[in-house]
Amino acid sequence: MTITTARQKNIVTAALMAPAAIWLFVFLVLPFIAMLVFAFGERSPEGGYQPAFTFAQFANLPSRAAAFWNTMILAPVGAFVCLVVAYPVAYYLALKAHPRYRLLLVSLVIVPFWTSLLVRTYAWMYILGSRGIPNLLGLIGLEDLRLINTPFAVLVGIVYGYLPLMIMPIYVSLEKLDRRLIDASSDLGARPVTTFFNVTLPLSLPGVMTGVALVTILLLGEYLIPQLLGGGKVFFIGNALVDLFLQSRNWPFGSAIAVTLVVVVVVVLMVAMRIAWRIAGTRQVDLI
After folding, report:
1. Residues spanned by the domain of 194
2. C-alpha to C-alpha distance for 255 and 244, rounded to whole angstroms
3. Tell me: the pLDDT tens digits for 31-78?
4. What is the pTM of this model?
5. How many domains does the chain have?
6. Residue 219 maps to a domain
């Protein structure tokens, strides 16, 4: 390959990547830079942003500790519950379901996305409200049971709303799995449980990591589900940001919270992905 040919290929590659790079820079990098600048400013008397350089906004972060606490607890727990529910479903769809019905079953998984999340969340407000499950339980003597406006209600909404996003990456990972490895493990005398933990699960970890990362990142900025099913009693960081930017118009403090959240998310995901890839690499070496 001549230098001219290599240079032409580099130019073509750069031209193909340029639209995506420009899109990411305009809609991801620039907003984050603006948010970072706002975070070191002050709230103007009439609301909004006033140029300054101060760390006062970051020092005031403990005042929103409840929102951080709820988000950092319920978001990972919700992602974990989604994983526990999604993996058996994805496993059945990819490895057990009849090929004739597989496409239909996969379609049923994504059917909820055909309806607005707002409508589906309102449905859960009725189900968990006084006329729904608590009313039915009251008929058998379990009265005064409160489900709506609790962390449990928020967790139910999270699992219901984000479960398809966890199922699909795991399904794709399992569907691409070389089934000859499972057959070989069985032929060598391994029990199904041993085969699952030593072959199937390690090889599906990329899909698991993708699903967990996708759901967790989206949950950290969730606003609608805590607002409707939490009833103003279970705040997420997303709810705090809406309050600061749209109601109290304290843009610098809201930006400081958003910057802190982004930093925490990046650090946690980097550590989690490194650990997961190390586990997956160790398992694959054991298989070899």
Report:
1. 68-238+261-287
2. 9
3. 889 999 999 999 988 888 888 889 999 999 998 888 989 998 999 999
4. 0.84
5. 1
6. yes
